[in-house]
């Protein structure tokens, strides 16, 4: 089995892509590429059994309705709630709020933060997969699943804060050490140095590990009453089992 992880950014220069091969003995990171363009991402995902992409797959439905209403005339502002309260459903998707409830982490707002630029690129990549015959179910069924590496690390009991940016290279190295101790079956091979020097590279590996968990049905999924909104907005897969279980099943 091969899983792919994508730490997507608005431009290729900060986009990392990881390929992970799985066997009965464990997993090996075959390759990590920082500076991945759309063509390389599409090729990697098309050849994978499951891919995890760290980026919102859609926008909050209430935000889309709000913008549409504003374009067509005037929006209706609820009476009573403060601005922050009534804007919550405009800025956070259902899955973002679920992630916060389960982990205490709040994903970046796709409608009110710069992650929106990355989501626009992601939408184009998902469309590209559809054109190549692999349409994407944004709820996570099928070839691609939305992931959030920091939340995956949180669920696996690993350090998940303050490891990004050049100023935190020591913390990044400590996280790699913690990952290797928790998953001795994971062979970073020639990609270890990339993971120690680039948080984008490590996040791509974590995305690939989460894709494996999703393929094994070891992640959260949208409940029946939220499946329609998940197929519109996207749904972040959170691990539901220990990291040690990932290499057990074929």
From TrEMBL:
<dbReference type="Pfam" id="PF04250">
    <property type="entry name" value="DUF429"/>
</dbReference>
<protein>
    <submittedName>
        <fullName>DUF429 domain-containing protein</fullName>
    </submittedName>
</protein>
<dbReference type="InterPro" id="IPR007362">
    <property type="entry name" value="DUF429"/>
</dbReference>
């Amino acid at each position: 089995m091969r899983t792919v992880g994508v730490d997507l950014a608005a431009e290729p220069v900060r986009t990392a892509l990881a390929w992970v091969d799985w066997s009965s003995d464990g997993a090996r990171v075959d390759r990590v590429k920082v500076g991945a363009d759309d063509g390389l991402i599409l090729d990697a995902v098309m050849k994978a059994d499951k891919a995890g992409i760290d980026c919102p797959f859609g926008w909050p439905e209430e935000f889309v309705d709000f913008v549409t209403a504003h374009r067509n005339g005037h929006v209706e502002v609820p009476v009573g709630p403060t601005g922050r309260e009534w804007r919550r459903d405009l800025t956070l998707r259902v899955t973002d709020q679920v992630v916060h409830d389960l982990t205490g982490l709040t994903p970046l707002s796709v409608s009110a933060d710069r992650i929106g630029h990355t989501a626009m690129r992601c939408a184009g990549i998902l469309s590209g997969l559809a054109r190549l015959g692999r349409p994407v179910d944004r709820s996570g069924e099928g070839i691609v699943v939305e992931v959030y590496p920091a939340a995956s690390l949180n669920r696996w009991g690993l350090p998940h804060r303050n490891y990004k940016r050049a100023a935190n290279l020591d913390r990044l190295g400590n996280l790699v050490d913690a990952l290797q101790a928790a998953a001795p079956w994971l062979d970073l091979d020639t990609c270890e140095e990339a993971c120690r020097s680039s948080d984008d590279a490590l996040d791509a590996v974590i995305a690939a590990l989460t894709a494996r968990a999703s393929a094994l049905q070891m992640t959260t999924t949208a409940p029946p009453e939220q499946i329609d909104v998940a197929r519109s907005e996207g749904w972040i897969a959170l691990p539901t089992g220990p990291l040690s279980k990932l290499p057990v099943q074929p």
